[in-house]
Amino acid sequence: MSLLDDQVRAADLDRWLASRLVDDAERRADLIALYAFFNELKAVPTRARQPVLAEMRYGWWAEHLDGAFSGEPRKGHPVLERLALAVSRRDLPRQPFDGLIDAWVQAAHGQPLEPAERERLELELATGVLGGAGGADLQPVARLLETGEGRGEANRALRRLPAAAFPAVAHAALIASSAPEPLRRLKLLWATLRGRI
């Protein structure tokens, strides 16, 4: 798992730091697999600048999700192998994955979904790995991640979030923070202890 862990740390330090707050090693590994998948989707536009080529790459991911959901992931692909394990262990629904890929395809064609929808789908999946959103409205947190605004509204919405699922949203506490890693870790820990971003 260290390969994916290193990849996520390099690509998305805030989420990686927040994942350190998950005390169950198995759940943390599943969360890292999910974050590695998110990073793969985010990287497509840098590898395929033409919309049609980007759509083909997203189609490849959609096709290979079939294997991940059937328990037969593409062999030798660490993200898909670990994602299949996470999907199986956490009984994750397919629809948010498909919605996320569709959102990236639309963005590649210059027709993005409503602001923060992609972030909401990512939060839905991440909280699903950690035990579910428990009725919390994740849209205000997604909006905060998208625009940097609405921290108070996001905190009000998170009152129904189970404590175990908080690390899935904790990275929102680091919005607009350029502090060094040790201070970022402290800020995440403080946010988690308070249950507020």
Distance between the termini: 28 Å
Q: What's the alpha carbon Rg, rounded to whole Å? A: 16 Å
Tell me the count of domains: 1
Number of helices: 10
User: What is the strand content?
Assistant: under 5%
What's the structural blueprint in terms of helices and strands?
Elements: H1 2-11, H2 13-19, H3 25-47, H4 51-70, H5 78-90, H6 95-108, H7 117-129, H8 139-147, H9 151-157, H10 181-194
Please describe what this structure looks like:
The chain starts with a helix and ends with a helix. The protein has helices spanning 2-11, 13-19, 25-47, 51-70, 78-90, 95-108, 117-129, 139-147, 151-157, 181-194. The protein has one domain. Helix content is 66%, strand content 0%. Helix 3 (25-47) packs antiparallel against helix 4. The radius of gyration is 16 Å and the shape is globular. The chain is built from ten helices and no strands. With 197 residues, the protein is mainly α. The relative contact order is 0.12. The longest helix has 23 residues, at 25-47.
